[in-house]
Design a protein that fits this description.
7 helices, globular, single chain, about 220 residues, alpha+beta
């Protein structure tokens, strides 16, 4: 399994950390961490070295969830979303999709049984093993077919279950799909969705643009 660790995003004047190993978030005013977060990479994100220096400062003041190294993911060429699919509501004529139902069931069971780090690591390992990309048209067609089953996802961890289930449903067609984890401020919220290039597959662009990506798998 590929290593996943600590990630950070600058959201509305706050630095929001995601500790994947412990499934914990922490928001800290940027001014407090300014001496440690001064350099960003070519995509405007903090480098692993920067995050680790900030984490070291947090450990000194007693935040135990910072006791993990920052681990860059090899698949992080994220493109800002500009559009989303038009997802249709559930209709009786669309109920004959057992693969979608099975994907939702498997996703819910995996979330119950495994930690976020294990789920993310497994998804990353699977994606790296896929040799060939699939046409965007096929991904869109299959995502729309899956969309009819979205209301069957439970309210708890809805976005996590929905995104994991769609990822399972797409299978080998999901090589070029990013699983984006985002955070918002000042009223802290976390969210995730699947994205192909600049196209959001399982949410609206109006909703996802409220979140700053903190981790892309």
């Amino acid at each position: 399994m590929n290593e996943v660790g600590l990630f950070a995003a600058d959201v509305g004047g706050q630095i929001v950390f995601l500790n994947v190993a412990r499934n914990r978030y922490l928001a800290v005013a940027r001014d407090i961490l300014a001496p440690f977060l001064v350099q960003e990479d070519e995509r405007g994100r903090f480098t692993p070295a920067e995050i680790e220096r900030a984490a070291a400062a947090l450990r000194q003041v007693g935040w135990p969830s910072a006791h993990v190294k920052s681990a860059p993911l090899p698949l992080t060429s994220h493109i800002q979303a500009t559009r989303s699919l038009e997802l249709s509501p559930l209709k009786p004529t669309r109920l004959a999709n057992p693969r979608a139902a099975l994907s939702l069931f498997r996703a819910a069971r995996r979330i119950e049984r495994y930690q976020l780090a294990e789920i993310v690591g497994s998804r990353l390992a699977h994606r790296l093993k896929i040799a060939c990309s699939t046409s965007p048209a096929r991904v869109i067609e299959r995502s729309l077919a899956f969309a009819a089953w979205r209301p069957l996802a439970s309210d708890k961890d809805r976005c996590l279950c929905d995104s994991l289930a769609l990822s399972m449903y797409l299978g080998r067609d999901g090589k070029d799909i990013d699983w984006v984890f985002g955070v918002s401020a000042p009223f802290f919220l976390a969210h995730c969705w699947l994205q192909m290039g600049d196209l959001v597959l399982n949410d609206s662009i109006e909703h996802t643009r409220q979140y700053a990506p903190v981790m892309i798998v």
